[in-house]
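Homework-ish question, so no full write-ups if that breaks the rules, but can someone show me the predicted structure for this set?
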Amino acid sequence: MFLIEMFLYLGVFAAGVSGALIGIKKELDLFGVLFLGGATALGGGLVRDVMLGNLPPVGFLDPVYFLVSTGAGLLTWLFYHRINRLQKFILVSDAIGLGVFTAVGASSAIRHGFDEPFIVISMGLITGIGGGVLRDVFVKEIPFVFRKEVYAIASIVGAAGYYFTAPLMPRPAAMYLCLAVTFAIRIASIVFKIDFPVYKENKPSKP
Amino acid sequence: MFLIEMFLYLGVFAAGVSGALIGIKKELDLFGVLFLGGATALGGGLVRDVMLGNLPPVGFLDPVYFLVSTGAGLLTWLFYHRINRLQKFILVSDAIGLGVFTAVGASSAIRHGFDEPFIVISMGLITGIGGGVLRDVFVKEIPFVFRKEVYAIASIVGAAGYYFTAPLMPRPAAMYLCLAVTFAIRIASIVFKIDFPVYKENKPSKP
Amino acid sequence: MFLIEMFLYLGVFAAGVSGALIGIKKELDLFGVLFLGGATALGGGLVRDVMLGNLPPVGFLDPVYFLVSTGAGLLTWLFYHRINRLQKFILVSDAIGLGVFTAVGASSAIRHGFDEPFIVISMGLITGIGGGVLRDVFVKEIPFVFRKEVYAIASIVGAAGYYFTAPLMPRPAAMYLCLAVTFAIRIASIVFKIDFPVYKENKPSKP
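A: Not a homework solution, just the prediction itself:
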Protein backbone atom coordinates (compact mmCIF):
# COMPACT_ATOMS: atom_id res chain seq x y z
CA MET A 1 0.00 0.00 0.00
CA PHE A 2 3.07 2.27 -0.14
CA LEU A 3 2.35 3.78 -3.53
CA ILE A 4 -1.33 4.50 -2.81
CA GLU A 5 -0.34 6.29 0.40
CA MET A 6 1.99 8.48 -1.59
CA PHE A 7 -0.91 9.31 -3.93
CA LEU A 8 -3.06 10.03 -0.85
CA TYR A 9 -0.55 12.53 0.50
CA LEU A 10 -0.26 14.10 -2.93
CA GLY A 11 -4.08 14.42 -3.05
CA VAL A 12 -4.18 15.99 0.42
CA PHE A 13 -1.41 18.37 -0.60
CA ALA A 14 -3.18 19.34 -3.84
CA ALA A 15 -6.46 19.92 -1.99
CA GLY A 16 -4.66 22.05 0.60
CA VAL A 17 -3.16 24.14 -2.22
CA SER A 18 -6.52 24.47 -3.99
CA GLY A 19 -8.27 25.63 -0.81
CA ALA A 20 -5.48 28.04 0.10
CA LEU A 21 -5.40 29.58 -3.40
CA ILE A 22 -9.13 30.26 -3.22
CA GLY A 23 -8.77 31.58 0.32
CA ILE A 24 -6.15 34.09 -0.79
CA LYS A 25 -8.28 35.18 -3.75
CA LYS A 26 -11.24 35.68 -1.39
CA GLU A 27 -9.03 37.85 0.87
CA LEU A 28 -9.23 35.57 3.90
CA ASP A 29 -6.62 36.09 6.58
CA LEU A 30 -3.85 33.56 7.19
CA PHE A 31 -5.99 31.51 9.58
CA GLY A 32 -8.85 31.46 7.06
CA VAL A 33 -6.49 30.44 4.25
CA LEU A 34 -5.04 27.51 6.22
CA PHE A 35 -8.48 26.51 7.55
CA LEU A 36 -9.90 26.51 4.03
CA GLY A 37 -6.98 24.39 2.82
CA GLY A 38 -7.61 21.95 5.68
CA ALA A 39 -11.37 21.84 5.05
CA THR A 40 -10.74 21.08 1.37
CA ALA A 41 -8.23 18.35 2.16
CA LEU A 42 -9.94 16.71 5.13
CA GLY A 43 -13.62 17.68 4.76
CA GLY A 44 -14.66 14.78 2.55
CA GLY A 45 -13.15 12.21 4.89
CA LEU A 46 -14.73 13.92 7.92
CA VAL A 47 -18.22 13.79 6.44
CA ARG A 48 -17.71 10.16 5.38
CA ASP A 49 -16.55 9.12 8.85
CA VAL A 50 -19.55 10.89 10.42
CA MET A 51 -21.88 9.03 8.05
CA LEU A 52 -20.20 5.69 8.81
CA GLY A 53 -20.31 6.38 12.56
CA ASN A 54 -16.52 6.08 12.61
CA LEU A 55 -15.97 8.74 15.30
CA PRO A 56 -13.80 10.67 15.95
CA PRO A 57 -12.97 10.86 12.25
CA VAL A 58 -9.53 9.65 11.16
CA GLY A 59 -8.56 13.25 10.38
CA PHE A 60 -8.70 14.12 14.10
CA LEU A 61 -6.98 10.98 15.37
CA ASP A 62 -4.03 11.13 12.98
CA PRO A 63 -2.79 14.72 12.50
CA VAL A 64 -0.48 13.85 9.62
CA TYR A 65 -3.11 14.80 7.00
CA PHE A 66 -3.70 18.10 8.78
CA LEU A 67 0.05 18.75 8.82
CA VAL A 68 0.36 18.04 5.09
CA SER A 69 -2.58 20.32 4.22
CA THR A 70 -1.27 23.09 6.52
CA GLY A 71 2.17 22.77 4.96
CA ALA A 72 0.55 23.05 1.54
CA GLY A 73 -1.36 26.13 2.69
CA LEU A 74 1.76 27.80 4.09
CA LEU A 75 3.74 27.15 0.90
CA THR A 76 0.84 28.62 -1.09
CA TRP A 77 0.86 31.71 1.13
CA LEU A 78 4.63 32.14 0.74
CA PHE A 79 4.86 31.41 -3.00
CA TYR A 80 1.40 32.44 -4.15
CA HIS A 81 2.27 33.84 -7.55
CA ARG A 82 4.58 30.99 -8.48
CA ILE A 83 2.11 28.30 -7.34
CA ASN A 84 -0.85 30.06 -8.94
CA ARG A 85 0.91 29.66 -12.29
CA LEU A 86 1.26 25.85 -11.92
CA GLN A 87 -2.31 25.29 -13.14
CA LYS A 88 -1.53 22.08 -15.01
CA PHE A 89 0.31 20.53 -12.08
CA ILE A 90 -2.59 21.48 -9.78
CA LEU A 91 -5.21 20.02 -12.13
CA VAL A 92 -3.35 16.72 -12.44
CA SER A 93 -2.67 16.48 -8.70
CA ASP A 94 -6.31 17.30 -7.99
CA ALA A 95 -7.43 14.54 -10.37
CA ILE A 96 -5.12 12.09 -8.58
CA GLY A 97 -6.61 13.30 -5.31
CA LEU A 98 -10.16 12.76 -6.58
CA GLY A 99 -9.23 9.22 -7.57
CA VAL A 100 -7.43 8.26 -4.39
CA PHE A 101 -10.04 9.89 -2.11
CA THR A 102 -12.75 7.96 -3.96
CA ALA A 103 -10.82 4.70 -3.57
CA VAL A 104 -10.17 5.29 0.14
CA GLY A 105 -13.82 6.23 0.76
CA ALA A 106 -15.29 3.27 -1.08
CA SER A 107 -12.93 0.82 0.61
CA SER A 108 -13.64 2.45 3.98
CA ALA A 109 -17.35 1.60 3.64
CA ILE A 110 -16.52 -2.05 3.01
CA ARG A 111 -13.96 -2.11 5.82
CA HIS A 112 -16.68 -0.94 8.22
CA GLY A 113 -18.95 -3.76 7.10
CA PHE A 114 -21.23 -1.89 4.68
CA ASP A 115 -20.98 -3.63 1.34
CA GLU A 116 -24.18 -2.66 -0.46
CA PRO A 117 -23.49 -0.85 -3.74
CA PHE A 118 -25.33 2.37 -2.84
CA ILE A 119 -23.41 3.04 0.35
CA VAL A 120 -20.03 2.00 -1.14
CA ILE A 121 -20.44 4.36 -4.08
CA SER A 122 -21.87 7.13 -1.86
CA MET A 123 -18.92 6.96 0.51
CA GLY A 124 -16.49 7.05 -2.42
CA LEU A 125 -18.28 10.08 -3.87
CA ILE A 126 -18.57 11.92 -0.51
CA THR A 127 -14.88 11.40 0.21
CA GLY A 128 -14.02 12.49 -3.33
CA ILE A 129 -16.07 15.68 -3.60
CA GLY A 130 -16.96 16.58 0.04
CA GLY A 131 -13.92 18.75 0.70
CA GLY A 132 -14.46 20.86 -2.40
CA VAL A 133 -18.15 21.30 -1.57
CA LEU A 134 -17.29 22.50 1.97
CA ARG A 135 -14.60 24.84 0.59
CA ASP A 136 -17.06 26.46 -1.83
CA VAL A 137 -19.84 26.80 0.77
CA PHE A 138 -17.40 28.50 3.17
CA VAL A 139 -16.43 31.12 0.59
CA LYS A 140 -20.01 31.68 -0.59
CA GLU A 141 -19.83 29.98 -3.96
CA ILE A 142 -22.27 27.47 -5.40
CA PRO A 143 -20.10 24.32 -5.30
CA PHE A 144 -18.10 23.96 -8.51
CA VAL A 145 -18.89 20.24 -8.69
CA PHE A 146 -22.62 21.02 -9.09
CA ARG A 147 -22.08 23.40 -11.97
CA LYS A 148 -19.73 22.19 -14.63
CA GLU A 149 -17.14 19.79 -16.01
CA VAL A 150 -17.08 16.06 -15.34
CA TYR A 151 -15.99 15.70 -11.76
CA ALA A 152 -18.54 13.88 -9.61
CA ILE A 153 -19.29 11.43 -12.42
CA ALA A 154 -15.63 10.40 -12.57
CA SER A 155 -15.79 9.63 -8.85
CA ILE A 156 -19.08 7.72 -9.18
CA VAL A 157 -17.79 5.56 -12.04
CA GLY A 158 -14.53 4.92 -10.20
CA ALA A 159 -16.36 3.93 -7.00
CA ALA A 160 -18.68 1.64 -8.96
CA GLY A 161 -15.60 0.08 -10.50
CA TYR A 162 -14.21 -0.51 -7.03
CA TYR A 163 -17.47 -2.06 -5.86
CA PHE A 164 -17.60 -4.55 -8.72
CA THR A 165 -13.93 -5.51 -8.77
CA ALA A 166 -13.21 -5.62 -5.00
CA PRO A 167 -14.54 -9.21 -4.64
CA LEU A 168 -12.43 -10.36 -7.60
CA MET A 169 -8.95 -9.16 -6.64
CA PRO A 170 -6.83 -8.09 -3.70
CA ARG A 171 -8.16 -4.90 -2.08
CA PRO A 172 -5.17 -2.70 -3.12
CA ALA A 173 -5.54 -3.78 -6.76
CA ALA A 174 -9.19 -2.68 -6.77
CA MET A 175 -8.16 0.64 -5.22
CA TYR A 176 -5.55 1.26 -7.94
CA LEU A 177 -8.16 0.43 -10.55
CA CYS A 178 -10.62 2.88 -8.97
CA LEU A 179 -7.94 5.56 -8.91
CA ALA A 180 -6.99 4.91 -12.53
CA VAL A 181 -10.59 4.97 -13.79
CA THR A 182 -11.50 8.13 -11.89
CA PHE A 183 -8.30 9.86 -12.94
CA ALA A 184 -8.69 8.87 -16.60
CA ILE A 185 -12.29 10.11 -16.84
CA ARG A 186 -11.47 13.36 -15.07
CA ILE A 187 -8.41 14.10 -17.23
CA ALA A 188 -10.17 13.07 -20.44
CA SER A 189 -13.02 15.46 -19.65
CA ILE A 190 -10.52 18.29 -19.19
CA VAL A 191 -8.53 17.46 -22.34
CA PHE A 192 -11.65 17.11 -24.50
CA LYS A 193 -13.51 19.95 -22.72
CA ILE A 194 -16.53 17.81 -21.93
CA ASP A 195 -19.13 19.40 -19.66
CA PHE A 196 -21.99 17.56 -18.05
CA PRO A 197 -25.25 18.92 -19.51
CA VAL A 198 -26.85 22.10 -18.14
CA TYR A 199 -30.54 22.66 -18.74
CA LYS A 200 -31.20 25.13 -21.52
CA GLU A 201 -34.36 27.12 -21.04
CA ASN A 202 -36.02 28.22 -24.25
CA LYS A 203 -35.53 31.89 -23.70
CA PRO A 204 -37.44 33.55 -26.54
CA SER A 205 -35.74 36.88 -25.81
CA LYS A 206 -32.42 35.53 -27.02
CA PRO A 207 -31.87 36.66 -30.60
CA MET B 1 -48.49 2.04 8.23
CA PHE B 2 -49.24 1.63 4.51
CA LEU B 3 -50.89 5.00 3.98
CA ILE B 4 -48.24 6.96 5.88
CA GLU B 5 -45.53 5.32 3.78
CA MET B 6 -47.33 6.46 0.67
CA PHE B 7 -47.34 10.00 2.07
CA LEU B 8 -43.63 9.61 2.86
CA TYR B 9 -42.80 8.67 -0.73
CA LEU B 10 -44.94 11.57 -1.96
CA GLY B 11 -43.01 13.91 0.36
CA VAL B 12 -39.65 12.57 -0.87
CA PHE B 13 -40.86 12.96 -4.46
CA ALA B 14 -42.06 16.55 -3.88
CA ALA B 15 -38.79 17.48 -2.17
CA GLY B 16 -36.85 15.94 -5.07
CA VAL B 17 -38.87 18.03 -7.51
CA SER B 18 -38.44 21.22 -5.45
CA GLY B 19 -34.67 20.75 -5.26
CA ALA B 20 -34.38 19.91 -8.95
CA LEU B 21 -36.47 22.93 -10.02
CA ILE B 22 -34.22 25.26 -8.03
CA GLY B 23 -31.14 23.48 -9.38
CA ILE B 24 -32.27 24.07 -12.95
CA LYS B 25 -33.05 27.73 -12.23
CA LYS B 26 -29.56 28.14 -10.73
CA GLU B 27 -28.05 26.60 -13.90
CA LEU B 28 -26.55 23.57 -12.20
CA ASP B 29 -25.56 20.67 -14.41
CA LEU B 30 -27.49 17.40 -14.41
CA PHE B 31 -25.42 15.98 -11.55
CA GLY B 32 -25.97 19.15 -9.51
CA VAL B 33 -29.70 19.10 -10.21
CA LEU B 34 -30.08 15.48 -9.09
CA PHE B 35 -27.78 16.00 -6.10
CA LEU B 36 -29.78 19.05 -5.01
CA GLY B 37 -33.02 17.07 -5.33
CA GLY B 38 -31.51 14.30 -3.23
CA ALA B 39 -30.17 16.71 -0.60
CA THR B 40 -33.61 18.32 -0.32
CA ALA B 41 -35.35 14.96 0.00
CA LEU B 42 -32.89 13.13 2.26
CA GLY B 43 -30.97 15.94 4.01
CA GLY B 44 -33.34 16.39 6.95
CA GLY B 45 -33.32 12.68 7.74
CA LEU B 46 -29.52 12.53 7.42
CA VAL B 47 -28.97 15.33 9.91
CA ARG B 48 -31.53 13.80 12.30
CA ASP B 49 -29.85 10.39 12.16
CA VAL B 50 -26.44 11.98 12.79
CA MET B 51 -27.86 13.80 15.83
CA LEU B 52 -29.47 10.61 17.15
CA GLY B 53 -26.25 8.64 16.57
CA ASN B 54 -28.21 6.35 14.24
CA LEU B 55 -25.33 5.74 11.82
CA PRO B 56 -25.11 5.13 8.91
CA PRO B 57 -28.30 7.16 8.36
CA VAL B 58 -31.33 5.30 7.00
CA GLY B 59 -30.95 7.17 3.70
CA PHE B 60 -27.67 5.33 3.01
CA LEU B 61 -28.81 1.90 4.14
CA ASP B 62 -32.06 1.88 2.16
CA PRO B 63 -31.58 3.40 -1.31
CA VAL B 64 -35.32 3.51 -2.11
CA TYR B 65 -35.62 7.15 -0.97
CA PHE B 66 -32.62 8.08 -3.09
CA LEU B 67 -34.18 6.32 -6.08
CA VAL B 68 -37.49 8.16 -5.62
CA SER B 69 -35.77 11.55 -5.33
CA THR B 70 -33.54 10.83 -8.32
CA GLY B 71 -36.57 9.76 -10.32
CA ALA B 72 -38.29 13.00 -9.32
CA GLY B 73 -35.20 14.95 -10.37
CA LEU B 74 -34.99 13.22 -13.75
CA LEU B 75 -38.68 13.82 -14.47
CA THR B 76 -38.17 17.47 -13.55
CA TRP B 77 -35.23 17.69 -15.94
CA LEU B 78 -37.24 16.08 -18.77
CA PHE B 79 -40.50 17.97 -18.24
CA TYR B 80 -39.25 21.16 -16.64
CA HIS B 81 -41.73 23.61 -18.14
CA ARG B 82 -44.75 21.42 -17.51
CA ILE B 83 -43.74 20.62 -13.92
CA ASN B 84 -42.79 24.21 -13.19
CA ARG B 85 -46.39 25.17 -13.94
CA LEU B 86 -47.83 22.73 -11.36
CA GLN B 87 -47.22 25.19 -8.51
CA LYS B 88 -50.35 24.24 -6.58
CA PHE B 89 -49.64 20.53 -6.78
CA ILE B 90 -46.04 21.17 -5.63
CA LEU B 91 -47.15 23.36 -2.70
CA VAL B 92 -49.66 20.76 -1.50
CA SER B 93 -47.22 17.85 -1.90
CA ASP B 94 -44.53 19.85 -0.12
CA ALA B 95 -46.93 20.52 2.78
CA ILE B 96 -47.70 16.79 2.98
CA GLY B 97 -43.95 16.17 2.95
CA LEU B 98 -43.39 18.67 5.77
CA GLY B 99 -46.05 16.90 7.81
CA VAL B 100 -44.88 13.35 7.20
CA PHE B 101 -41.18 14.20 7.65
CA THR B 102 -42.05 15.86 10.97
CA ALA B 103 -44.04 12.81 12.08
CA VAL B 104 -41.26 10.40 11.06
CA GLY B 105 -38.59 12.52 12.77
CA ALA B 106 -40.49 12.94 16.04
CA SER B 107 -41.37 9.25 16.21
CA SER B 108 -37.75 8.35 15.35
CA ALA B 109 -36.52 10.17 18.48
CA ILE B 110 -38.90 8.18 20.67
CA ARG B 111 -38.05 4.93 18.88
CA HIS B 112 -34.37 5.52 19.74
CA GLY B 113 -35.24 5.98 23.41
CA PHE B 114 -35.22 9.80 23.62
CA ASP B 115 -38.61 10.88 24.88
CA GLU B 116 -38.01 14.32 26.37
CA PRO B 117 -40.14 16.99 24.68
CA PHE B 118 -37.23 19.15 23.50
CA ILE B 119 -35.47 16.38 21.59
CA VAL B 120 -38.69 14.92 20.16
CA ILE B 121 -39.79 18.29 18.79
CA SER B 122 -36.25 19.13 17.60
CA MET B 123 -35.96 15.89 15.66
CA GLY B 124 -39.39 16.47 14.09
CA LEU B 125 -38.36 19.99 13.08
CA ILE B 126 -34.91 18.99 11.79
CA THR B 127 -36.39 16.20 9.67
CA GLY B 128 -39.09 18.57 8.42
CA ILE B 129 -36.96 21.58 7.44
CA GLY B 130 -33.39 20.21 7.24
CA GLY B 131 -33.51 19.26 3.56
CA GLY B 132 -34.76 22.68 2.49
CA VAL B 133 -32.11 24.42 4.58
CA LEU B 134 -29.34 22.32 2.98
CA ARG B 135 -30.78 22.97 -0.49
CA ASP B 136 -30.75 26.73 0.03
CA VAL B 137 -27.25 26.80 1.53
CA PHE B 138 -25.92 24.80 -1.46
CA VAL B 139 -27.32 27.33 -3.94
CA LYS B 140 -26.22 30.36 -1.91
CA GLU B 141 -29.60 31.53 -0.64
CA ILE B 142 -30.51 32.43 2.91
CA PRO B 143 -32.79 29.50 3.79
CA PHE B 144 -36.38 30.25 2.84
CA VAL B 145 -37.65 28.81 6.13
CA PHE B 146 -35.79 31.55 8.07
CA ARG B 147 -37.29 34.35 6.07
CA LYS B 148 -41.00 34.13 5.50
CA GLU B 149 -44.31 32.29 5.57
CA VAL B 150 -45.36 29.86 8.27
CA TYR B 151 -43.27 26.77 7.69
CA ALA B 152 -41.11 25.82 10.66
CA ILE B 153 -43.90 26.75 13.09
CA ALA B 154 -46.23 24.26 11.40
CA SER B 155 -43.62 21.57 11.94
CA ILE B 156 -43.01 22.58 15.58
CA VAL B 157 -46.72 22.55 16.42
CA GLY B 158 -47.20 19.22 14.66
CA ALA B 159 -44.23 17.67 16.48
CA ALA B 160 -45.52 19.00 19.81
CA GLY B 161 -48.90 17.44 18.99
CA TYR B 162 -47.13 14.14 18.35
CA TYR B 163 -45.25 14.36 21.64
CA PHE B 164 -48.40 14.96 23.68
CA THR B 165 -50.64 12.42 21.92
CA ALA B 166 -48.12 9.57 21.40
CA PRO B 167 -48.66 8.17 24.93
CA LEU B 168 -52.47 8.27 24.49
CA MET B 169 -52.96 6.38 21.26
CA PRO B 170 -51.31 3.87 18.91
CA ARG B 171 -48.10 5.27 17.37
CA PRO B 172 -49.49 5.47 13.79
CA ALA B 173 -52.55 7.43 14.98
CA ALA B 174 -50.29 10.05 16.61
CA MET B 175 -48.28 10.23 13.39
CA TYR B 176 -51.39 10.85 11.29
CA LEU B 177 -52.45 13.53 13.75
CA CYS B 178 -49.01 15.21 13.50
CA LEU B 179 -49.21 15.08 9.71
CA ALA B 180 -52.73 16.54 9.70
CA VAL B 181 -51.88 19.38 12.12
CA THR B 182 -48.67 20.34 10.30
CA PHE B 183 -50.37 20.15 6.91
CA ALA B 184 -53.38 22.19 8.04
CA ILE B 185 -51.28 25.00 9.54
CA ARG B 186 -49.00 25.15 6.51
CA ILE B 187 -51.87 25.22 4.00
CA ALA B 188 -53.90 27.71 6.06
CA SER B 189 -50.91 30.06 6.17
CA ILE B 190 -50.64 29.88 2.37
CA VAL B 191 -54.37 30.37 1.76
CA PHE B 192 -54.65 33.29 4.18
CA LYS B 193 -51.19 34.66 3.26
CA ILE B 194 -49.97 34.71 6.84
CA ASP B 195 -46.28 35.52 7.34
CA PHE B 196 -44.40 35.10 10.55
CA PRO B 197 -43.35 38.55 11.79
CA VAL B 198 -40.22 40.25 10.46
CA TYR B 199 -38.61 42.99 12.54
CA LYS B 200 -39.45 46.46 11.26
CA GLU B 201 -36.71 48.95 11.86
CA ASN B 202 -37.93 52.51 12.32
CA LYS B 203 -36.28 53.90 9.26
CA PRO B 204 -36.86 57.64 9.50
CA SER B 205 -35.82 58.11 5.89
CA LYS B 206 -38.90 56.27 4.67
CA PRO B 207 -41.57 58.83 3.70
CA MET C 1 -17.35 24.73 38.84
CA PHE C 2 -20.05 27.27 39.76
CA LEU C 3 -18.29 30.33 38.37
CA ILE C 4 -17.35 28.70 35.07
CA GLU C 5 -20.97 27.64 34.56
CA MET C 6 -22.02 31.25 35.02
CA PHE C 7 -19.48 32.24 32.36
CA LEU C 8 -20.87 29.48 30.14
CA TYR C 9 -24.41 30.82 30.43
CA LEU C 10 -23.12 34.33 29.77
CA GLY C 11 -21.35 33.03 26.65
CA VAL C 12 -24.48 31.25 25.42
CA PHE C 13 -26.50 34.41 26.08
CA ALA C 14 -24.00 36.62 24.22
CA ALA C 15 -23.92 34.21 21.26
CA GLY C 16 -27.73 34.17 21.20
CA VAL C 17 -27.75 37.98 21.11
CA SER C 18 -25.09 38.12 18.39
CA GLY C 19 -27.00 35.65 16.19
CA ALA C 20 -30.33 37.40 16.76
CA LEU C 21 -28.87 40.85 15.96
CA ILE C 22 -27.53 39.58 12.66
CA GLY C 23 -30.80 37.78 11.96
CA ILE C 24 -32.76 41.01 12.43
CA LYS C 25 -30.33 42.92 10.19
CA LYS C 26 -30.72 40.24 7.51
CA GLU C 27 -34.53 40.61 7.74
CA LEU C 28 -35.20 37.07 8.93
CA ASP C 29 -38.58 36.40 10.50
CA LEU C 30 -38.95 35.74 14.22
CA PHE C 31 -38.35 32.01 13.78
CA GLY C 32 -35.22 32.67 11.73
CA VAL C 33 -33.94 35.18 14.28
CA LEU C 34 -34.35 32.74 17.19
CA PHE C 35 -32.99 29.83 15.14
CA LEU C 36 -29.91 31.86 14.18
CA GLY C 37 -29.38 32.81 17.81
CA GLY C 38 -29.64 29.15 18.79
CA ALA C 39 -27.30 28.02 16.01
CA THR C 40 -24.71 30.59 17.09
CA ALA C 41 -24.97 29.58 20.74
CA LEU C 42 -25.20 25.81 20.36
CA GLY C 43 -23.67 25.12 16.93
CA GLY C 44 -20.06 24.78 18.07
CA GLY C 45 -20.95 22.28 20.79
CA LEU C 46 -23.14 20.32 18.36
CA VAL C 47 -20.36 19.91 15.82
CA ARG C 48 -17.88 18.98 18.58
CA ASP C 49 -20.21 16.32 19.97
CA VAL C 50 -20.75 14.88 16.50
CA MET C 51 -16.97 14.69 15.99
CA LEU C 52 -16.47 13.03 19.38
CA GLY C 53 -19.32 10.58 18.70
CA ASN C 54 -21.06 11.91 21.82
CA LEU C 55 -24.59 11.54 20.42
CA PRO C 56 -27.16 12.97 20.84
CA PRO C 57 -25.21 16.17 21.49
CA VAL C 58 -25.50 17.73 24.96
CA GLY C 59 -27.47 20.62 23.44
CA PHE C 60 -30.37 18.27 22.63
CA LEU C 61 -30.32 16.36 25.90
CA ASP C 62 -30.26 19.39 28.18
CA PRO C 63 -32.54 22.17 26.86
CA VAL C 64 -31.27 24.79 29.30
CA TYR C 65 -28.76 26.18 26.77
CA PHE C 66 -31.48 26.37 24.15
CA LEU C 67 -33.73 28.22 26.61
CA VAL C 68 -30.99 30.73 27.44
CA SER C 69 -30.22 31.39 23.76
CA THR C 70 -33.93 31.69 22.91
CA GLY C 71 -34.42 34.08 25.82
CA ALA C 72 -31.48 36.12 24.53
CA GLY C 73 -33.02 36.12 21.04
CA LEU C 74 -36.43 37.23 22.32
CA LEU C 75 -34.91 40.07 24.37
CA THR C 76 -32.96 41.14 21.30
CA TRP C 77 -36.18 41.15 19.25
CA LEU C 78 -38.03 43.20 21.89
CA PHE C 79 -35.24 45.69 22.66
CA TYR C 80 -33.33 45.67 19.38
CA HIS C 81 -32.25 49.31 19.28
CA ARG C 82 -31.19 49.41 22.90
CA ILE C 83 -29.25 46.13 22.68
CA ASN C 84 -27.69 47.06 19.34
CA ARG C 85 -26.09 50.04 21.09
CA LEU C 86 -24.40 47.89 23.77
CA GLN C 87 -21.52 47.03 21.41
CA LYS C 88 -18.87 47.03 24.13
CA PHE C 89 -20.88 44.79 26.43
CA ILE C 90 -21.51 42.40 23.52
CA LEU C 91 -17.83 42.31 22.52
CA VAL C 92 -16.72 41.55 26.08
CA SER C 93 -19.42 38.90 26.62
CA ASP C 94 -18.56 37.35 23.27
CA ALA C 95 -14.87 37.19 24.26
CA ILE C 96 -15.85 35.49 27.53
CA GLY C 97 -17.99 33.09 25.49
CA LEU C 98 -15.08 32.32 23.15
CA GLY C 99 -12.90 31.54 26.17
CA VAL C 100 -15.38 29.39 28.04
CA PHE C 101 -16.52 27.51 24.92
CA THR C 102 -12.87 26.77 24.13
CA ALA C 103 -12.27 25.52 27.68
CA VAL C 104 -15.40 23.35 27.67
CA GLY C 105 -14.55 21.91 24.23
CA ALA C 106 -10.94 21.10 25.07
CA SER C 107 -11.87 19.50 28.39
CA SER C 108 -14.67 17.57 26.68
CA ALA C 109 -12.15 15.86 24.38
CA ILE C 110 -10.10 14.71 27.37
CA ARG C 111 -13.22 13.65 29.28
CA HIS C 112 -14.14 11.39 26.34
CA GLY C 113 -10.70 9.79 26.43
CA PHE C 114 -8.98 11.65 23.58
CA ASP C 115 -5.91 13.32 25.00
CA GLU C 116 -3.66 13.86 22.01
CA PRO C 117 -2.80 17.54 21.50
CA PHE C 118 -4.29 17.84 18.01
CA ILE C 119 -7.75 16.60 18.95
CA VAL C 120 -7.85 18.53 22.26
CA ILE C 121 -6.99 21.81 20.54
CA SER C 122 -9.31 21.05 17.58
CA MET C 123 -12.26 20.40 19.87
CA GLY C 124 -11.55 23.62 21.79
CA LEU C 125 -11.39 25.57 18.54
CA ILE C 126 -14.49 23.95 17.00
CA THR C 127 -16.52 24.63 20.15
CA GLY C 128 -15.20 28.18 20.26
CA ILE C 129 -15.77 29.24 16.64
CA GLY C 130 -18.26 26.67 15.26
CA GLY C 131 -21.41 28.57 16.19
CA GLY C 132 -20.23 31.76 14.54
CA VAL C 133 -19.22 29.90 11.38
CA LEU C 134 -22.67 28.26 11.15
CA ARG C 135 -24.38 31.63 11.77
CA ASP C 136 -22.44 33.28 8.94
CA VAL C 137 -23.00 30.40 6.49
CA PHE C 138 -26.76 30.51 7.19
CA VAL C 139 -26.96 34.22 6.35
CA LYS C 140 -24.71 33.93 3.29
CA GLU C 141 -21.60 35.61 4.63
CA ILE C 142 -18.04 34.35 4.43
CA PRO C 143 -17.43 33.47 8.10
CA PHE C 144 -16.09 36.48 9.99
CA VAL C 145 -13.51 34.31 11.77
CA PHE C 146 -11.82 33.50 8.43
CA ARG C 147 -11.50 37.13 7.43
CA LYS C 148 -10.20 39.42 10.11
CA GLU C 149 -9.25 40.22 13.67
CA VAL C 150 -7.63 37.76 16.07
CA TYR C 151 -10.37 35.34 17.00
CA ALA C 152 -9.53 31.75 16.13
CA ILE C 153 -5.91 32.24 17.22
CA ALA C 154 -7.06 33.29 20.69
CA SER C 155 -9.04 30.05 20.92
CA ILE C 156 -6.13 27.93 19.62
CA VAL C 157 -3.65 29.43 22.09
CA GLY C 158 -6.14 29.05 24.95
CA ALA C 159 -6.83 25.41 24.05
CA ALA C 160 -3.09 24.72 23.80
CA GLY C 161 -2.71 26.27 27.25
CA TYR C 162 -5.40 23.94 28.53
CA TYR C 163 -3.69 20.92 26.98
CA PHE C 164 -0.33 21.67 28.58
CA THR C 165 -1.60 22.68 32.02
CA ALA C 166 -4.40 20.11 32.49
CA PRO C 167 -1.99 17.39 33.74
CA LEU C 168 -0.41 19.83 36.23
CA MET C 169 -3.41 21.18 38.09
CA PRO C 170 -7.04 20.41 38.92
CA ARG C 171 -9.25 20.37 35.80
CA PRO C 172 -11.23 23.54 36.73
CA ALA C 173 -8.03 25.52 37.26
CA ALA C 174 -6.83 24.62 33.77
CA MET C 175 -10.22 25.66 32.38
CA TYR C 176 -10.03 29.06 34.09
CA LEU C 177 -6.55 29.50 32.71
CA CYS C 178 -7.75 28.64 29.18
CA LEU C 179 -10.61 31.10 29.55
CA ALA C 180 -8.29 33.85 30.83
CA VAL C 181 -5.71 33.35 28.07
CA THR C 182 -8.29 33.24 25.28
CA PHE C 183 -10.13 36.25 26.67
CA ALA C 184 -6.94 38.29 27.15
CA ILE C 185 -5.69 37.65 23.60
CA ARG C 186 -9.09 38.42 22.08
CA ILE C 187 -9.57 41.65 24.04
CA ALA C 188 -5.98 42.78 23.46
CA SER C 189 -6.43 42.30 19.71
CA ILE C 190 -9.55 44.48 19.82
CA VAL C 191 -7.97 47.20 21.99
CA PHE C 192 -4.79 47.35 19.90
CA LYS C 193 -6.66 46.77 16.60
CA ILE C 194 -4.48 43.83 15.62
CA ASP C 195 -5.60 41.91 12.53
CA PHE C 196 -4.23 38.58 11.45
CA PRO C 197 -2.39 39.07 8.14
CA VAL C 198 -4.27 39.10 4.84
CA TYR C 199 -2.35 38.33 1.65
CA LYS C 200 -1.53 41.46 -0.33
CA GLU C 201 -1.35 40.87 -4.03
CA ASN C 202 1.07 43.15 -5.83
CA LYS C 203 -1.50 44.93 -7.91
CA PRO C 204 0.53 47.07 -10.31
CA SER C 205 -2.57 49.03 -11.27
CA LYS C 206 -2.70 50.63 -7.83
CA PRO C 207 -1.10 54.08 -8.04
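Now go work out the reasoning yourself. Hint: Chain B touches chain C at residues 50-53, 114, 116, 118-119, 122, 133, 137, 140-143, 145-148, 152-153, 195-199, 201-202 (CB under 8 Å).
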